[in-house]
Amino acid sequence: MSETNPATAEVAAPHRYTAAVAAEIEARWQDFWDADGTYAAPNPKGDLAGDPGLVAKPKKYIMDMFPYPSGAGLHVGHPLGYIATDVFARFQRMTGHNVLHTLGFDAFGLPAEQHAVQTGEHPRVTTEAAINNMKSQLRRLGLGHDKRRSFATIDPDYYKWTQWIFVQIFNSWYDDEAKQARPISELVARFESGERAVPGGRSWDALSAAERADVLGEYRLAYASDAPVNWCPGLGTVLANEEVTADGRSERGNFPVFKAKLRQWNMRITAYADRLLDDLNELDWPEAIKLQQRNWIGRSEGARVDFPIDGEAITVFTTRQDTLFGATYMVLAPEHPLVEKFTPAAWPEGTHDVWTGGHATPAEAVAAYRAQAASKSDVERQAEAKDKTGVFTGAFATNPVNGEQIPVFIADYVLMGYGTGAIMAVPAHDARDFAFARAFELPIRCVVEPSDDRGTDASTWDDAFVSYDAKIVNSHGEDVSLDGLGVTEAKARITEWLQDKGIGEGTVNFRLRDWLFSRQRYWGEPFPIVYDEDGIAHSLPESMLPLELPEVEDYSPRTFDPDDADTSPETPLSRNQDWVDVTLDLGDGRGPRPYRRETNTMPNWAGSCWYELRYLDPHNSEKLVDPEIEQYWMGPRAGQPHGGVDLYVGGAEHAVLHLLYARFWSKVLYDLGHISSPEPFHKLYNQGMIQAFVYRDSRGFPVPAAEIEERDGAFFHNGEQVKRELGKMGKSLKNAVTPEAICEEYGADTLRLYEMAMGPLDVSRPWDTRAVVGQYRLLQRLWRNVVDEATGEVTVTDAEPDETTLRALHKAIDGVRQDLEGLRFNTAIAKVTELNNHLTKAGAAVPRPVAESLVLLIAPLAPHIAEELWRKLGHTDSVVHQDFPVADPRYVVDETVTCVVQVKGKVKARLEVSPAISDDELEKVALADEKVVAALDGADIRKVIVRAPKLVNIVPA
Questions:
Q1: What is the value of pTM for the model shown?
Q2: I need a labelling partner for 104 at 20 to 30 A (CA). Which of 419, 421, 751, 813 fits?
Q3: Where are the domains of the chain?
């Protein structure tokens, strides 16, 4: 920072507001707030119950997205959302609300585990140190959190309930008839009684324990299966899709990632796809976020169609069942379970050379192609590559509408995770199928009449013709014809035909996949699951929770040759044999028995799926949350039919995964009767990002932004010219500015004001340390309007304010109130600045009512200086719970407004009139004005258009 900055310059006035004074004030008031419990939000009952009068106020529940406590600490970009919610929470307290606002820590994460792998230091040690550092940084900003409610996901008292929720999900199934989750015991009872048929046709009593477990596994909302996963040998763990880069490598370490099948835990989120879609309509979320969720869920209506093959069938889902007559081949995902079953020993006679990939047998071709596909990510496989790849399986299926034998290929552009993992290829009317057909010399048959002049001989086309508004052609068989029908009518007819034949049906499909819930890591919540001698999974009873992480000697999963796909995970937990192999009495009547614990851990998403509920009742050791407390803070109410948090602020990067997972958990807990709110977050607001300039040397490497010299519009580092670009702020880019640096230079209130004044909250904006001083000067002027810098005495007067000041005051009150309610903090600060400048320019002592109102206006934004000035003005109670000023309507409306008078479209006069003047009165005043009379020069008037109070347009005859 510059030594000549006025914030640090030596000043003669001993009582001037300086950085040192700000620091002393801020530390003192932060201590007071903590000791006084100023921000404690009372519950209607429980150990956080408080003043019934406060609980009787309307409530407001305000939340920030869970922060991860990084060891690097915060830079000034991180607190943007935290300051914003704090300002809004303070405003809500001052407008009569019981406000719940707190902050916990999403503390299971890879960085601490990586540090543990490298150093051998337990990840809890580094995580708790990072939490303490972050708490200190946030405290210095004066955030008004109810600290009694804070926690971290790594606290056993917290993850006990994360594990408990997993048990509830494991012991539940989705009843499609009731459209809700129900206890798995109810399903068992239905199987036992015969009310529901057991899949396979056998009776429930005839099944072994393992067979029963397999049946229930097809219904449970949490289930283990051999799932296709992203296996990274170089890291020794399975990765979620979001942890894999577009080029098929691990985001961490840049290792190759392969597709593999592993036994993994999954959440059956797909059961809730319709409800997750429908309930978006009742949420106050940005439309862009809703759209992302809708696209991710990806609901599509179509038909399931069976293509016979060797006495069985390959099932496809299609949204274009009207084009079935144009299907000339099929494609399966390389991982499809039927590939090996239908792959013959030798190539059929007449197999095209281009179909075989140069391999001697179908089995060789399939194995080689599967290995190739396994090295690609789903993103790569779905990319619109110029050259399509694939290989013939050697098998043929039957097109059910015309009996044609069509070849079955595998290709990487078909994913096992979407639909059925198999498609019918209609190359004339799908761009990818068209490219594939051309590459493999497959027939292309037109069945949708082109609207251009290309004709219906698809073999001559350059590309596919895709239309949902055209006639169907070349689509007739022995007992069904679609020729001449439109797409909608053709879909309906062929669907009915398929259903009558028993080879298909109309159905709905979703892009959404079940949630892969296993990680081969140490630093995560242990699964509350054990396996008996038959390999059957059992959930632990609540009395055995929390299941805490054991100590291990090595925190890293076993890693392998990064290119060796033929490997499988070995987790850190699996090495602690004393913990893995246990004898337990699960309370199921079977007594003590030997079990083996699950050695995967939950993903770091788990803890953030329900934390909004723990804030409500954080010390409850008997229940997830007390129903009365949950109903008070989050229950449905007018305008919020699904309940939820009143305001949830965080980054748009969590648009899908975190928000979707949290919504899923809420709906399960709601269905099972544990909570009253089927949605966790009613209103969502995405704050923008604080960006910073990055300076790069000739090699493209970042250099320290603090060491940059600017000369004649160019930028230099150690004498070398460097390039400047706008980007993220962070340690790796060497442009991070810490909150502490700004607080030391100017004070926390200045930092708060600057971040809120930089621009609209939902827009990204560049950081400029040089501009911070503007808000510092605002606070200095505010201080001078109340305190004499030479004596420290309060200078306000008991004289009544004049009308000009009253109008300035009440316009500011009206505007600031509306802006704070609408999260328009930058414009609220502008209005406070305007009022403060008016008082400064007046040059006289400020009337007490005006000074007090000004302090109350700025209190949500700059709480420390507001507390200090409020106390200096003679008040003994905190400013935090004072009533926010209310504008007097008499002074909000301008005393006069300027009315423009036009004659023949040209301005001839400007009149000062009352804002309440009527159209008739304004017309008379305008016509009587001497300038208007002169402009008319005796001409007759054809029309007078009046828009009181601001416009009169006179049209002469």
A1: 0.86
A2: 751
A3: 299-510, 894-956
